[in-house]
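Progress against Task 2.4 (sequence-to-structure conversion) is shown through the following example record, which the project officer requested during the mid-term review.
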Amino acid sequence: MIQKEIITLLITPHQILYFFPLYAFLGWLGEVIYRTITRKHFVNPGLLTGPVLPLYGSASIIIIFIASLFPVNNPIFDFVFFAIFCSIIEYFAAALAETYFKIRLWEYDDYRFNLKGRICLRFAAYWGLYTLVFLYIIHPFFYNTFEYITKDVYPGKEHSITLVLLFINTAIVLDFMISAKAMKKFIVTLNKFIENYINLENDQIQQYLYKMRKPLKSFRAIRKYTDFEIRKRLEKNLSDQLTGLKQLMNDKLFIKKSSEEEFKKISHEITSNPEYIKLADYLHHDSSILDHSLKVAYTSYKIAKFLGLDYVSTTRGALLHDFFLYDWRSLEGRPYEGRWHGFKHPKIALNNAKKHFKLNKIEEDIIIKHMWPLTIIPPRYKESVIVTTIDKYISSIETVKALKNSNSKKD
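Structure tokens generated for the chain above:
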């Protein structure tokens, strides 16, 4: 049975200078691996510029100190005690971050048995397991490695080693201070972005997202907050847009600016594609996917042109937004297992569209975001918002019509 080496728990201030940056780095490395695997793309976690997470460094030092007060080899006790203890540290760290930054840096609202979204049972268990591995394997190894370096490899060099460690720790503290200040500035920029999102031009939205790219990539909680706030503002205007849609369609200027011939010319490349025409074989509400896509595209085209937006990209994106070749009512023939059509088909449609057509960024965004808010990230372009809105408007009409037809057949 693996035993704790009690001597490794009796660390000196000199050793703390070594262990703090080491475990802050290892914590960062573990987070990178975990997030990169779960999200399927590289994620640089944390607030700091450097490859460290001070929470892990601080928590590790505290764990060592607490464990030294209970010099027993009892894995069950260690697991339960430190699962609770580390969760308490995480809870107050989250509360402190929320108080200072006025926003969550992490949250567990989606997990069962959570407390105010700051801690949850699942990650408490992770903390317990981490502590066991840390106290029984990781820390003894690095403690003995440090002793070997200072006593056998570089004997008499404690002063030089201490200076190097002081420099590293000072760099981490300075990085933390600079990053905390930058984070405060980011929060101001984020709230300004959310507040003005509806009125921003597409290039302005791109500039904002580029400025905020690291925190948005690193912190899932910030992305959720941003998506929720933007969604709330867009949904507030959605009913007004749908209410005024019929009136807009009867406007003489609206009719004059658009034309069926121009729409057909823009659509020709797509509507003449043999693979795309297959959409006529698949039912969608009260008609086919092809018929639905044409209705969404034509209405979106007229509105985009009336508003002076990129109506060509709007038309093409709308035509391709449901470019999936299977019956979504049936579980058979789907390119994925189970249900979740609403979540899955935008990506399938985008992949199909890329196989047959050259798309620009607006067209891609229209296709992948047309099911928003089912897709967490909101539409990036105004053209995408138009197609998303019109798709829901026409789908609701088709659904009601399909229900009426179904009822009439029963009668």
